[in-house]
Design goal:
single chain; zinc-finger; two-stranded antiparallel ribbon; Potassium Channel Kv1.1, Chain A; 126 residues; three-stranded mixed beta sheet; alpha+beta; ZnFinger_BTB_dom_contain
Length: 126
């Protein structure tokens, strides 16, 4: 966490003999921590506001997180689409396992592949 910026005196504070500082408070970890907490909430079905039905499976998600992840979900959950007001929305054209990987990436920014570096380097690509 850091605080940066010029020191500025506020008239009311200066009159009282105190100095006011304005600046920027920032944290490189904030976004990651926030995303991790939202993913934890998703996995525990806390505050999920829509259920997505994908290939026979149900995924509880947060509309805001998915809408922020890209234009497809932003359009899906906008007021112009009928799905915007539904508690359950069917997603077609994608397998549940693939969709789960997509959700994992949306909520964490990463995906752990199912093979190791040794498996990749030992594979015969000829």
């Amino acid at each position: 966490m850091s605080c940066a910026g010029p020191s500025l005196s506020h008239p009311q504070c200066s009159a009282a003999g105190a100095e006011s500082h304005r600046g920027i408070l920032s944290s490189d970890r904030h976004a990651g921590l926030l995303l991790a907490q939202m993913n934890k909430m998703r996995l525990q079905s806390d505050f999920c506001d829509v259920r997505l039905l994908v290939g026979g499976r149900v995924f509880g998600v947060h509309k805001l997180v998915l809408a922020a992840s890209g234009p497809y979900f932003a359009a899906l959950f906008s007021g112009a689409m009928s799905e915007a007001h539904e508690e359950e929305v069917r997603i077609v054209g994608v397998e549940a396992d693939v969709f789960e990987i997509l959700l994992e990436f949306i909520y964490t920014g990463m995906h752990v592949f199912g093979c190791t570096i040794n498996q990749i380097s030992n594979r015969d690509y000829n």
